[in-house]
């Protein structure tokens, strides 16, 4: 079970990296700020 969760985390990180590579750094930062604003 633990190894499966680690694999899922790695897949999520790879997806985030691919999204970051596709879009500009500025837009990624804006998306991150929007997420933090929604959380807090």
- C-alpha geometry: flat
Mean pLDDT: 79
Q: Decide which structural class fits the backbone.
A: mainly alpha
- SSE topology string: HH
Percent in helix: over 70%
Give the secondary structure arrangement, pairings included.
Elements: H1 2-22, H2 25-39
Task: Explain the overall architecture.
The structure is a single chain. This protein is mainly α. 90% of the residues lie in helices and 0% in strands. It is built from 2 helices and no strands. The chain is flat and about 35 Å long. The termini are far apart.
List keywords for this structure.
40 residues, mainly alpha, 2 helices, 90% helix
Short description:
It contains 2 helices and no strands.
